[in-house]
Design goal:
The protein is an alpha+beta fold and about 500 residues long. It is built from 16 helices and 22 strands. The structure holds adenosine-5'-diphosphate (2 copies) and magnesium ion.
């Protein structure tokens, strides 16, 4: 493969291109009207305009993307995450056109893209699963009966759901009919598939997932876990590797279960098997994501393996060059997703222009982003701006580095989840490792964040006062070292 087309945008398009270039592979970007001047377009060796800004007319238009690959003579297509990455028909179309799809086979995407089909596929492999039903359900009376058996609270889940969407927790029998109807109509609207099922709602779980790699020669390995319990709206915001609580025994057991899940669908490529871990250290299979995961960098940092490079090598039919025994965990990595959202206002999208955008730099800091100062965040796509990742010799060091990196990351013009990331890193529940998927509900309020801001302002004022008293004769503005703007009291 000498040239690949990256069918995505933003940080992930850039991240994939970086590895391609490192491997001596040329890249083709695709873009919509809104992304005409985006960094991924400039970074690629070539770029093809797809169409209007809405995803359906650009990044989700399969024919346009395949045509762009033909036009530029690209041999492979990397789908990134989101968009067409988990679309079996797209993988099929790419292959039918004589191009290489850098990802699993359509069959695996199809099976794992449907949560019920996934459960069905892994059934014979002795994988622990969340108690619940195995088929889609529409009959309300039957749903009531089943819920009573499972025990409340139950979770109504869309089989085709993703990105934290399509889930409803039901606490009482009386709420069930209305919630079922809503869930079905929402699933139809959001995923074009109204099938929903019921699952036991695990009350205080941790979300732990296992990264796997499988080559076309039958080798399947796992690259340990990622802890993704800090979520809002069932979607991750802070992730880390390794998990603060996993024992070597549970890690091995989960790793082996993940490898079995991959076997169950003849998986090829990089994939992620998601589990819930309950208070008794019992784990349950949730779903498999058949693509590169947003939070893959934390795994790269603790294992030293470039996952995109492995994806490309696997797509070229190369054998994995290492074995399970060769892999080990070194250090600790933390990721904060920087969403254009306002944590002070229920994490609602905060659109606008990046008036200031100054990146943190330094040893142990990795920033995967796709924006620049002055750019406007398009309203058409996922509101993630960047991923701030830190790597330290241990968890404490990674957390401290993150707190510093967040302070050094200057974004003005829009609200972001950076302040929330700092709140998490400084919270006792997080630093002690004693938290679950309800961290936001249990510990976070805008008022607390406000207090934190207030305290910072107070500290800044005190530091200013201290400086003033120490240099009693001269009041300087400490940040303006090169400026001659100083006020000499004696001269006044
Ligand atoms: P990950 O699963 O990689 O940890 P997310 O759950 O945030 O991260 O999903 C990754 C991306 O894919 C996000 O941009 C999310 O919006 C998008 N996504 C995933 N599945 C779906 C889906 N079924 N419908 C819409 N968007 C989805
Ligand atoms: P998605 O496809 O949207 O990523 P998942 O099945 O992976 O859906 O679930 C996303 C999140 O929703 C989990 O990380 C967890 O916080 C919550 N969740 C899902 N299923 C359950 C359950 N049975 N009990 C408790 N929480 C759940
Ligand atoms: Mg998931």
């Amino acid at each position: 493969m000498k040239k690949i087309l990256v069918a995505n945008r933003g940080e992930i398009a850039l991240r994939i291109m970086r590895t391609a270039h490192k491997m001596g592979i040329k890249t083709v970007a695709v873009y919509s009207d809104a992304d005409r001047d985006a960094p991924h377009v400039r970074f690629a060796n070539e770029a093809v305009h797809l169409g209007n800004s809405p995803s359906s007319e650009s990044y989700l238009d399969m024919d346009k993307i395949v045509n762009a690959a033909h036009q530029t003579k690209a041999e492979g297509i990397h789908p990134g995450y989101g968009f067409l990455s988990e679309n079996a028909a797209f993988a099929q179309l790419v292959t039918k056109n004589g191009l290489c799809f850098i990802g699993p086979k359509p069959h695996a995407i199809e099976v794992m893209g449907d949560k019920l089909a996934a459960k069905e596929a892994v059934k014979g492999y002795n994988i622990p699963m969340v108690p619940g039903i195995e088929e889609a359900i529409t009959d309300i009376a039957l749903a009531q009966k089943i819920s009573k058996n499972i025990g409340f609270p139950v979770l109504i889940k869309a089989s085709a759901g993703g990105g934290g969407k399509g889930m409803r927790v039901v606490h009482h029998l009386s709420e069930l009919p209305e919630q079922m109807e809503r869930a079905i109509s929402e699933a139809k609207a959001a995923f074009g598939n109204g099938s929903v099922f019921l699952e036991k709602y695990i009350e205080s779980p941790r979300h732990i997932e296992i990264q796997i790699l499988a080559d076309t020669h039958g080798n399947i390995l796992h690259l340990f876990e990622r802890e993704c319990s800090i979520q809002r709206r069932h979607q991750k915001v802070v992730e880390e590797a390794p998990s603060a609580i996993l024992t070597p025994e549970i890690r091995t057991a989960m790793g082996e279960a993940a490898v079995k899940v991959a076997k169950a669908c003849d998986y090829v490529g990089a994939g992620t098997v998601e589990f819930l871990l309950d208070g008794d250290n019992k784990f349950y299979f949730l779903e498999m994501n058949t693509r590169l995961q947003v939070e893959h960098p934390v795994t790269e940092l603790i294992t030293g393996i470039d996952l995109v490079e492995q994806q490309i090598k696997i797509a070229r039919n190369e054998k994995l060059a290492f074995s399970q025994e060769d892999l080990s965990i070194k250090g600790h990595a933390l990721e904060v997703r920087v969403y254009a959202e306002d944590p002070m206002n229920n994490f609602l999208p905060s659109m606008g222009t990046l008036e200031t955008y100054k990146r943190p730099v330094g040893e142990g800091i990795r920033l995967d982003d796709g924006f620049e100062e002055g750019m406007t965040i398009p309203i058409f796509y996922d509101p993630m701006l960047a991923k701030l990742i830190t790597y330290g010799k241990d968890r404490e060091e990674a957390i401290q580095l993150m707190i510093r990196a967040i302070s050094d990351f200057k974004i003005k013009g829009i609200s972001t989840t950076l302040s929330f990331g700092k709140f998490v890193c400084e919270h006792e529940a997080f630093t002690s490792g004693n938290f679950d998927t309800h961290f936001v509900k249990n510990y976070f309020t805008p008022e607390l964040l406000h207090q934190q801001y207030g305290q910072e302002r107070k500290i800044a004022a005190l530091v200013g006062l201290k400086l003033f008293l120490e240099h009693n004769d001269q009041l300087r503005l400490p940040d303006y070292k090169n400026s001659n703007w100083s006020l000499n009291r004696t001269k006044r």
